[in-house]
Amino acid sequence: MIQLADLIVTVAQEADDALIRLTKAVELSGQLSELGDHLIGHFVDEARRGGASWAEIGESLGVTKQAAQKRFVPKESPELGKPSMERYTQRSRRVIALARHHARFSERIGTEHLLLGLLDESAGLAAKTIAKLESGDGSTRIATLNRLDSEAQQRPEKQPYTTHCKKALELAVREALRMGHMFIGTEHILLGVLLEAEGTAADVLHNTGVTHAAAATHIEAVVNGPQRVLPGA
């Protein structure tokens, strides 16, 4: 269990000035709150995969079924939600923009568009990871393009992200926190996409030989290895 004394020492080591320490304490408190939210979210997801109903989950959380669903089930929305785009690296922001570009003939922005954005950002760690693990050169891109709806749709003025896309981006945050990173890089988005198993992108990636376990192992080896690259690259 995290001890208050340890947190006080952590903040105290950051600066000598009392007001700067206060600012650091507020920042750390926010990080701990986010970690707590994702810790609960992780076990909610685990319970759902194990067959628990929303009524049972709500009872465990001490809330109603409706309140549990509202908190943990992503909804289609033109907004990305948390975290703000400030947490995304420049490459990750380009991935989001590229996903929107690939969805220009679609009613919604899905995980398949997000995957194409990751592939387009070829210098990013996500694209390099896919290239390393996929069964054939360019096989993931070809398979993804084959899964796109070939019939142009009327794009709404406020084009929403699908629930699977929103969940993948939420899981990207969780993967970043698991790795001890407070930013969202292309590698985190890839891992989030892979964890959202019901999304089109995860299905494509699995079929081309890119699994979450293999991707996570490769990414962590690159980030932490002897020829380490900056995380978020």
**Rg value:** 19 Å
Multimeric status of the protein: single chain
Structural class: mainly alpha
Fraction of helical residues: 55-70%
Name of the top-level CATH class of the largest domain: Mainly Alpha
CATH homology superfamily name of the largest domain? Clp, N-terminal domain
Look at the structure and give the mean pLDDT. Answer: 90
Q: According to CATH, what is the topology of the largest domain? A: Double Clp-N motif
Biggest sheet layout: none
Total DSSP E strands: 0
Straight-line N-to-C gap: 33 Å
Shape: globular
**Distinct helical segment count:** 12
CATH architecture of the largest domain: Orthogonal Bundle
How much beta, percentage-wise?
under 5%
Order of helices and strands: HHHHHHHHHHHH
Stretches where pLDDT is under 50 for at least 5 consecutive residues are none
